[in-house]
Specification:
alpha/beta, 20 helices, 12 strands
Length: 579
């Protein structure tokens, strides 16, 4: 874990090394000052030697200024190193997430990834800064102060050693019992973020069904769980402070008792005793800082493990040794394809799929809910890999292609149409970043989006709200279709992507496909027969299997499922658009 996280330091390695270097110099000055003070009292103040006081006083001022300067430098470099380290961790996590296959994304919840990129990284940043400053400062201060204390009076210095076992035992107990609560607390953060995300994104549905009290109850439950585990952890951690105070004041009493006797006997000077008190405070404060660091590291350890889990996650999809860069055509072939979302699943989502689609064909796909229509088409751009069998595009197994090259030739409009914050132009250029304004207009005309775009005061420069909430469902679908067309793909997949448009507009979109992109293979998943009845072929899916494959006429004559859907819609009248 530490080896993987250390790779994120990179260009901030110099700052990471300079910070503890200046910390050591700062500690050297702080340890030297009490020693000089004792010399000033015993050799200057007591004898009344004013020259010695002034000379040593000047040295003390210089030491204090150097300590201040070294502390400022160490703080500057530590802040720079920790902030840069956190930035690199976030960068590496985010870039790794971009390479995830859908299977990897399914393993981590969206809210869990958000927590890891925010709360967990912040915890790790704070811990990193403490490590390169306090974790260096505390041991160096502890060793240096002990050395100077033994130099002043070795008998009195033994008082400190009695407190060490008590502190170490108490610290070990705190870490052992607090860590499990921190782990559970961060898992609860994931759940809380999930509740908030669902509520905010589905606010219209929540209000429409008057479910605000229910959502509030879910939030309060998640928040209370965080409170419960946080309180349990804090109850254990706070024991560290009274234990520290007990050891500190015990040492002070011991020093006072034995020091007074040594002064009376003439074996100890007044300035030396004052110096021992100062070193006592420095030693015990160092021990307290060490205990605080271990508490912080205990809390950040849970965050570090969650972050490394994402950093070490490898995509289940990878390019072959010598991937193909060009897709010859839009032909598609399924050869005895079986697929399951999980290796441990007892049943396949797709079973023994055999299909052969020629370039430029328009293929409609129908079937009931849960018949694996979407799963079938997601195998074509290799969003998932088959469990067995093969999917071929352009005469080659999709696993032979470079993933990016393959997906550039397969445009997919999913069921959940997503638009991003920005102008309509910016959203459309997701399909082709270098597309001209003329190409944007052409694609929008094919998708029947140009007319409604021109009704907006700002036209193609109209700002889209997050999620596309300021356009209707049908408008959002047409913009997403136009975005896909800008890719000029060899294969176009519409996954129930015209469900929110009227039948007339649907027909105009299909006619534009026939006239404008005749060489593009088109796969149309639809609930409406009117959307697929003019296709070259129809695929009827049922429970993860191909129930029928042929022309619309053949399906109408031979396939029972297609007949039922056809007659229910045609004889019963065109149903309302479904989402």
């Amino acid at each position: 874990m530490l080896k993987r996280l250390s790779q994120c330091i990179r260009e901030y390695r110099t700052d990471t090394l300079l910070s503890p270097f200046f910390v050591c110099l700062e500690v050297a000055m702080e340890v030297l000052i009490p020693y000089l003070m004792s010399r000033m009292i015993d050799r200057g103040v007591s004898p009344g030697n004013m020259d010695y006081i002034l000379r040593l006083g000047g040295i003390l001022v210089i030491c204090a200024l150097l300590s201040l300067l070294f502390g400022a430098f160490s703080g500057h470099f530590a802040a720079n190193a920790s902030a840069g380290f956190a930035r690199n961790v976030r960068h590496d996590m985010y870039c790794n997430i971009q390479d995830f296959a859908f299977e990897n994304i399914d393993r981590f919840s969206t809210s869990g990834l958000v927590t890891r990129l925010t709360t967990d990284v912040t915890n790790l940043q704070n811990a990193f800064q403490m490590v390169i400053r306090i974790l260096v400062r505390a041991p160096v201060m502890l060793v240096s102060s002990l050395f100077m204390a033994f130099r002043v009076n070795s008998s009195l210095a033994l008082t400190f050693l009695a407190a060490a076992p008590v502190l170490l035992l108490g610290l070990a107990c705190v870490i052992h019992f607090a860590f499990p609560n921190f782990q559970k607390m961060f898992d609860c953060y994931d759940h809380l973020n999930n509740v908030v995300q669902e509520n905010v994104t589905a606010m219209r549905v929540v209000k429409a069904y008057v479910r605000e009290p229910h959502e509030t109850s879910k939030f309060e439950h998640a928040s209370n769980e965080i409170f419960r585990y946080s309180k349990a952890a804090e109850r254990i951690i706070v024991l560290n402070s009274p234990l520290m105070q007990l050891c500190m004041y015990g040492c002070m009493l011991g020093l006072s008792w034995f020091g007074a006797k040594l002064i009376i006997s003439g074996d100890l000077l007044t300035g030396e005793l004052m110096t021992m008190f100062t070193y006592t405070m420095q030693i015990l404060m160092s021990l307290m800082m060490i205990s605080m660091i271990f508490v912080m590291l205990t809390m950040s350890r849970a965050s570090a493990e969650r972050i490394v889990e994402v950093l070490n996650e490898k995509s289940r999809l990878a390019n072959s040794a010598s991937p193909l860069d060009a897709v010859p055509d839009g032909s598609i072939r399924f050869e005895h394809v079986n697929f399951s979302y999980s290796d441990d699943a007892g049943e396949n989502c797709l079973s023994d799929i055999c299909l052969d689609i020629r370039p430029g064909e328009t293929v409609g796909i129908i079937g009931g809910t849960g018949s694996a229509k979407s799963t079938l088409v997601q195998l074509i751009p290799r969003l998932y890999d088959v469990s067995s069998g093969s999917v071929q595009v352009g005469g080659h197994d999709v696993r032979e292609y470079d993933i990016e090259s393959l997906r550039n030739e397969v445009a997919m409009v999913l069921q959940k149409n997503t638009l991003f914050t920005g102008t309509i132009k910016e959203n459309l250029r997701w399909g082709n970043a270098s597309a001209s304004d003329e190409e944007l207009v052409r694609a929008c005309r094919q998708a029947q989006a140009d007319d409604f775009i021109r009704t907006f005061p700002d036209g193609y420069d109209t700002l889209i709200d997050q999620g596309g909430t300021n356009v209707s469902g049908g408008q959002r679908q047409r913009l997403c279709i136009a975005r896909a067309l800008l890719k000029k793909p060899k294969i176009l997949i519409l996954d129930d992507s015209t469900s929110a448009v009227d039948t007339k507009t649907d027909a105009m979109i299909r006619r534009a496909f026939r006239e404008e992109i005749p060489d593009t293979t088109k796969l149309i998943i639809a609930q409406r027969i009117s959307s697929v009845e003019h296709a070259d072929k129809i695929i009827v899916m049922d429970n993860g299997r191909v129930n029928g494959f042929g022309t619309p006429a053949e399906m109408l004559e031979n396939n029972h499922i297609y007949q039922e859907v056809y007659h229910s819609q045609v004889k019963g009248g065109e149903p309302n658009a479904e989402s």
